[in-house]
Protein backbone atom coordinates (compact mmCIF):
# COMPACT_ATOMS: atom_id res chain seq x y z
CA UNK A 1 0.00 0.00 0.00
CA UNK A 2 1.14 3.55 -0.79
CA UNK A 3 0.65 5.70 2.30
CA UNK A 4 -0.42 9.26 1.45
CA UNK A 5 -0.88 12.46 3.47
CA UNK A 6 -3.07 15.25 2.04
CA UNK A 7 -2.58 18.96 2.71
CA UNK A 8 -5.29 21.24 1.28
CA UNK A 9 -7.21 24.00 3.03
CA UNK A 10 -10.50 23.16 1.25
CA UNK A 11 -12.29 20.34 3.02
CA UNK A 12 -14.42 19.57 -0.05
CA UNK A 13 -11.25 19.11 -2.13
CA UNK A 14 -9.74 16.83 0.54
CA UNK A 15 -12.92 14.71 0.75
CA UNK A 16 -12.93 14.34 -3.04
CA UNK A 17 -9.25 13.41 -3.10
CA UNK A 18 -9.65 10.83 -0.33
CA UNK A 19 -12.51 9.16 -2.24
CA UNK A 20 -10.59 9.29 -5.51
CA UNK A 21 -7.32 7.92 -4.14
CA UNK A 22 -8.80 5.11 -2.10
CA UNK A 23 -10.82 3.61 -4.99
CA UNK A 24 -7.62 2.30 -6.62
CA UNK A 25 -7.04 -0.21 -3.83
CA UNK A 26 -3.29 0.40 -3.54
CA UNK A 27 -3.36 3.88 -1.92
CA UNK A 28 -4.23 4.58 1.70
CA UNK A 29 -4.75 8.16 2.98
CA UNK A 30 -3.21 8.04 6.48
CA UNK A 31 -3.65 11.70 7.38
CA UNK A 32 -4.91 15.04 6.16
CA UNK A 33 -4.74 18.69 7.16
CA UNK A 34 -5.78 22.16 6.06
CA UNK A 35 -2.91 23.91 7.87
CA UNK A 36 0.73 24.21 6.75
CA UNK A 37 1.96 24.44 10.35
CA UNK A 38 0.02 21.38 11.47
CA UNK A 39 1.08 19.37 8.41
CA UNK A 40 4.79 20.18 8.92
CA UNK A 41 4.52 18.71 12.44
CA UNK A 42 2.34 15.69 11.63
CA UNK A 43 3.86 14.43 8.36
CA UNK A 44 7.27 13.37 9.78
CA UNK A 45 5.48 11.57 12.66
CA UNK A 46 3.13 9.67 10.31
CA UNK A 47 5.87 8.94 7.75
CA UNK A 48 3.73 8.66 4.59
CA UNK A 49 5.35 7.52 1.33
CA UNK A 50 3.99 10.58 -0.46
CA UNK A 51 2.75 13.94 0.86
CA UNK A 52 0.38 15.72 -1.56
CA UNK A 53 0.82 19.40 -0.71
CA UNK A 54 -1.29 22.35 -1.82
CA UNK A 55 1.04 25.16 -2.88
CA UNK A 56 -1.04 27.98 -1.35
CA UNK A 57 -2.46 27.87 2.16
CA UNK A 58 -3.79 30.51 4.55
CA UNK A 59 -0.88 29.98 6.98
CA UNK A 60 1.95 29.18 4.59
CA UNK A 61 2.61 27.07 1.52
CA UNK A 62 3.17 23.46 0.58
CA UNK A 63 6.63 24.15 -0.82
CA UNK A 64 7.95 25.26 2.58
CA UNK A 65 6.21 22.26 4.19
CA UNK A 66 7.94 19.99 1.66
CA UNK A 67 11.34 21.48 2.47
CA UNK A 68 10.81 21.28 6.24
CA UNK A 69 9.55 17.69 6.09
CA UNK A 70 12.39 16.50 3.84
CA UNK A 71 14.94 18.15 6.15
CA UNK A 72 13.63 15.83 8.89
CA UNK A 73 13.03 12.71 6.76
CA UNK A 74 14.23 12.71 3.14
CA UNK A 75 12.50 9.38 2.44
CA UNK A 76 9.13 11.20 2.34
CA UNK A 77 8.33 12.26 -1.23
CA UNK A 78 6.62 15.59 -1.86
CA UNK A 79 4.08 16.21 -4.64
CA UNK A 80 3.13 19.88 -4.99
CA UNK A 81 -0.44 20.59 -6.10
CA UNK A 82 -0.82 24.05 -7.59
CA UNK A 83 -3.40 26.00 -9.56
CA UNK A 84 -0.88 27.92 -11.67
CA UNK A 85 2.31 27.08 -13.49
CA UNK A 86 5.29 29.38 -13.67
CA UNK A 87 9.06 29.15 -13.57
CA UNK A 88 9.27 30.68 -10.14
CA UNK A 89 6.96 28.19 -8.42
CA UNK A 90 8.66 25.35 -10.27
CA UNK A 91 12.08 26.59 -9.19
CA UNK A 92 10.88 26.81 -5.58
CA UNK A 93 9.52 23.24 -5.79
CA UNK A 94 12.87 21.98 -7.12
CA UNK A 95 14.71 23.86 -4.36
CA UNK A 96 12.40 22.24 -1.78
CA UNK A 97 13.25 18.74 -2.99
CA UNK A 98 9.78 17.98 -4.34
CA UNK A 99 9.48 14.92 -6.58
CA UNK A 100 6.68 16.40 -8.61
CA UNK A 101 4.58 19.41 -9.39
CA UNK A 102 1.05 18.91 -10.75
CA UNK A 103 -1.66 21.37 -11.68
CA UNK A 104 -4.99 21.18 -9.86
CA UNK A 105 -6.74 20.89 -13.21
CA UNK A 106 -5.18 17.41 -13.58
CA UNK A 107 -7.58 14.52 -14.25
CA UNK A 108 -8.18 12.27 -11.25
CA UNK A 109 -6.66 9.20 -12.89
CA UNK A 110 -3.54 11.21 -13.78
CA UNK A 111 -3.12 12.30 -10.16
CA UNK A 112 -3.36 8.69 -8.98
CA UNK A 113 -0.74 7.78 -11.61
CA UNK A 114 1.48 10.67 -10.46
CA UNK A 115 1.33 9.48 -6.83
CA UNK A 116 2.22 5.92 -7.88
CA UNK A 117 5.18 7.13 -9.92
CA UNK A 118 6.50 9.41 -7.18
CA UNK A 119 6.12 6.60 -4.60
CA UNK A 120 8.19 4.38 -6.91
CA UNK A 121 11.01 6.93 -6.80
CA UNK A 122 10.43 8.68 -10.13
CA UNK A 123 10.58 12.44 -10.56
CA UNK A 124 7.71 14.14 -12.34
CA UNK A 125 9.61 17.39 -12.75
CA UNK A 126 10.37 18.14 -16.37
CA UNK A 127 14.07 17.20 -16.69
CA UNK A 128 14.69 20.04 -19.17
CA UNK A 129 13.35 22.64 -16.77
CA UNK A 130 15.24 21.14 -13.82
CA UNK A 131 18.36 21.20 -15.96
CA UNK A 132 17.77 24.84 -16.92
CA UNK A 133 17.44 25.84 -13.28
CA UNK A 134 20.63 23.99 -12.31
CA UNK A 135 22.51 25.48 -15.25
CA UNK A 136 21.50 28.97 -14.16
CA UNK A 137 23.10 28.34 -10.79
CA UNK A 138 26.12 26.57 -12.30
CA UNK A 139 26.91 29.04 -15.06
CA UNK A 140 25.47 32.10 -13.42
CA UNK A 141 23.71 33.05 -16.67
CA UNK A 142 22.59 36.67 -16.29
CA UNK A 143 23.60 36.10 -12.71
CA UNK A 144 22.62 38.62 -10.08
CA UNK A 145 25.42 40.39 -8.27
CA UNK A 146 24.83 38.33 -5.12
CA UNK A 147 25.41 35.04 -6.94
CA UNK A 148 28.73 36.28 -8.29
CA UNK A 149 29.95 36.67 -4.71
CA UNK A 150 29.68 32.94 -3.96
CA UNK A 151 32.81 30.79 -3.87
CA UNK A 152 32.95 27.68 -6.08
CA UNK A 153 32.33 25.50 -3.04
CA UNK A 154 29.28 27.58 -1.99
CA UNK A 155 27.92 27.42 -5.50
CA UNK A 156 28.30 23.64 -5.57
CA UNK A 157 26.46 23.42 -2.26
CA UNK A 158 23.74 25.71 -3.63
CA UNK A 159 23.36 23.32 -6.59
CA UNK A 160 22.82 20.44 -4.17
CA UNK A 161 20.30 22.51 -2.20
CA UNK A 162 18.55 23.12 -5.53
CA UNK A 163 18.44 19.36 -6.08
CA UNK A 164 16.56 19.07 -2.80
CA UNK A 165 19.33 17.39 -0.81
CA UNK A 166 19.47 17.81 2.96
CA UNK A 167 22.66 19.02 4.69
CA UNK A 168 23.40 15.41 5.67
CA UNK A 169 23.08 14.21 2.07
CA UNK A 170 25.21 17.10 0.79
CA UNK A 171 27.86 16.27 3.41
CA UNK A 172 27.97 12.64 2.27
CA UNK A 173 28.18 13.59 -1.41
CA UNK A 174 30.92 16.20 -0.92
CA UNK A 175 32.84 14.27 1.77
CA UNK A 176 32.42 17.08 4.28
CA UNK A 177 31.24 17.14 7.88
CA UNK A 178 27.55 17.95 8.23
CA UNK A 179 28.47 20.91 10.45
CA UNK A 180 30.76 22.25 7.68
CA UNK A 181 27.92 22.06 5.17
CA UNK A 182 25.65 23.86 7.63
CA UNK A 183 28.23 26.65 7.92
CA UNK A 184 28.53 26.92 4.13
CA UNK A 185 24.73 27.08 3.77
CA UNK A 186 24.57 29.83 6.41
CA UNK A 187 27.32 31.73 4.61
CA UNK A 188 25.74 31.49 1.15
CA UNK A 189 22.29 32.43 2.49
CA UNK A 190 23.86 35.49 4.14
CA UNK A 191 25.52 36.45 0.85
CA UNK A 192 22.24 36.03 -1.00
CA UNK A 193 20.45 38.16 1.56
CA UNK A 194 18.32 35.27 2.84
CA UNK A 195 17.72 34.35 6.46
CA UNK A 196 16.70 30.72 6.12
CA UNK A 197 16.98 27.87 3.67
CA UNK A 198 13.19 28.09 3.43
CA UNK A 199 13.54 31.43 1.66
CA UNK A 200 15.21 29.80 -1.32
CA UNK A 201 12.18 30.90 -3.36
CA UNK A 202 13.58 34.44 -3.09
CA UNK A 203 16.59 33.19 -4.98
CA UNK A 204 14.25 31.88 -7.66
CA UNK A 205 12.94 35.38 -8.22
CA UNK A 206 16.47 36.67 -8.61
CA UNK A 207 17.56 33.90 -10.96
CA UNK A 208 14.44 33.44 -13.03
CA UNK A 209 12.43 36.59 -12.48
CA UNK A 210 14.06 38.90 -14.99
CA UNK A 211 15.14 36.70 -17.86
CA UNK A 212 13.16 36.82 -21.12
CA UNK A 213 11.12 33.68 -21.80
CA UNK A 214 11.68 31.67 -24.95
Question: Which characteristics define this entry?
Answer:
214 residues; alpha/beta; 53% helix; elongated; disordered C terminus
Detailed description of the structure:
- With 214 residues, the chain is α/β, with parallel strands linked by helices.
- Helices cover 53% and strands 13% of the residues.
- It is built from eleven helices and five strands, in the order E-H-E-H-E-H-E-H-E-H-H-H-H-H-H-H.
- It has helices at 11-22, 36-46, 62-72, 87-95, 108-119, 127-139, 145-148, 152-162, 167-174, 178-191, 200-208, and strands spanning 2-7, 27-33, 50-54, 77-82, 100-103.
- Helix 1 (11-22) links the parallel strand 1 (2-7) and strand 2.
- The longest helix has 14 residues, at 178-191.
- 38% of the residues are buried.
Radius of gyration: 17 Å
Q: What is the terminal-to-terminal distance?
A: 42 Å
- Tell me the fraction of residues in β-strands, as a range: 5-15%
Determine the number of helices (DSSP H or I, runs of at least 4 residues): 11
The rough form would be described as: elongated
Helix content: 40-55%
**Helix and strand element order:** EHEHEHEHEHHHHHHH
User: What is the overall pLDDT average?
Assistant: 81
Widest sheet: strand order?
A: 2-1-3-4-5
Structural class determined from secondary elements: alpha/beta
Amino acid sequence: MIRVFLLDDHEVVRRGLVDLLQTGGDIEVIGESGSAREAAARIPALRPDVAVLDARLPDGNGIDVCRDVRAVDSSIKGLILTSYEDDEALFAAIMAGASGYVLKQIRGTDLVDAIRRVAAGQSLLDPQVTQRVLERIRNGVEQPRELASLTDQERRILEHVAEGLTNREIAARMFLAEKTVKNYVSSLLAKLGLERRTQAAVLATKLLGDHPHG
